[in-house]
Amino acid sequence: MIEASAPGKLYLAGEYAVVEAGYPAVIAAVDQHLFVRLEQVETGKIHSTQHPDLFVTWTRHDHHICPGATNPYQLITSSMQVVEDYVRALGVDTETFYQVEIRSDLDDEQSGTKYGLGSSGAVTVGVVKALLAYYKQAAVPLLVYKLSALAQLRIGASGSFGDLAASSFGGIVAYHSVDRTWLKEAMECLTILELVAQDWQGLSIESLDLPEGLELLVGWTGSAASTDQLVAGMQGQLQQEEKEAVHRQFLTANRLCLEQFIQACKANDRETVREAIRTNRQQLQDFSAGMGIVIETPQLARLCQLALAQGAVAKSSGAGGGDCGICLVDSPKQKEKITKAWEEVGIVPLPLSIAYRE
Ligand code: PMV
Ligand code: MG
């Protein structure tokens, strides 16, 4: 029996810009997890608490994982396939069958509520980690990230893969995104072992800590949002010249702000980190106005105002349009006051902390 887990994530800064190759974001892994259990069995099976009544069987034909019926587990089977391709290239036999059992704490199962903590990233990372362990390979964070990114790219997933970096490394990461165009080409002409051994263009993942005395506080707006739709909405606008200019300007300003954020974490400089959150919020507001997309909804704006009124800094997290906002607090008293103010307007403080590093 093998067990592995992967944490959820929240963007602290740099969302949207990070979708562009090589642009930075700061992302935190949070201590709410997705768990994967693998057990060797006669017939391959997949089961997840995300679809409690669904049991899918699988087998292999010519080293290809083949599910017995159409199913919503494409991310899981793609992750299985990538790890099997990788270990086979290392000379490991992949002949046994196993049952994959997924349990997620990232969403509220009872009510079906989605908090936007990144369950698709976590399921990919969790399955990759569990299968590496099943095949007796070390689950080194960078290897886990790379295999997870390949699993997602093979099935045409969009986005920066920043969630995969946070979930693979744990803690807080400064993430510069991989150049997807380069990666797609590299996938065509390199073997999986060469691909994994290469430096990836644009990519860097570095662990960070927040300056001492700053703590993460997370508020949930009560409504779920679709990252894919929001990112597609942004990309759809880029055909127009004037929107392209807005985007270019956003990218330049964002990079500067994120570099200051990252340096300030290294220098343990609390005030500059606070300033970077304020600046990045403003940049996202200007960007969304210029692009005609809604990132900071009225409820997210309320969340930020109530935090600011207590002297903290706050912003929307990730694609926005709902989901969560983040706030950095510097005293227990401040935290308590913000929590109370949020609750009065229906914002749910989530009991989350930053997850430990791998
Ligand atoms: O809403 P989230 O937490 O899934 O974050 C999305 C972040 C984006 O930069 C908007 C998209 C991406 O893939 O990086
Ligand atoms: Mg979101």
TrEMBL record:
Transmembrane segment boundaries: none
Any single biological process term in GO: isopentenyl diphosphate biosynthetic process, mevalonate pathway
Keyword Protein biosynthesis: no
Pathway the protein takes part in: Isoprenoid biosynthesis; isopentenyl diphosphate biosynthesis via mevalonate pathway; isopentenyl diphosphate from (R)-mevalonate: step 2/3
Keyword Transport: no
Protein name, per record: phosphomevalonate kinase
Keyword terms, alphabetized: ATP-binding, Kinase, Nucleotide-binding, Transferase
E.C. numbers: 2.7.4.2
PANTHER family: PHOSPHOMEVALONATE KINASE, PTHR31814
One Pfam family here: GHMP_kinases_C
A molecular function (GO) term: ATP binding
All residue ranges annotated as the GHMP kinase C-terminal domain in the record: 262-346
Start and end residues of each GHMP kinase N-terminal domain: 84-171
Organism annotation: Streptococcus cuniculi
Top-rank EC class of the record's enzyme: transferase
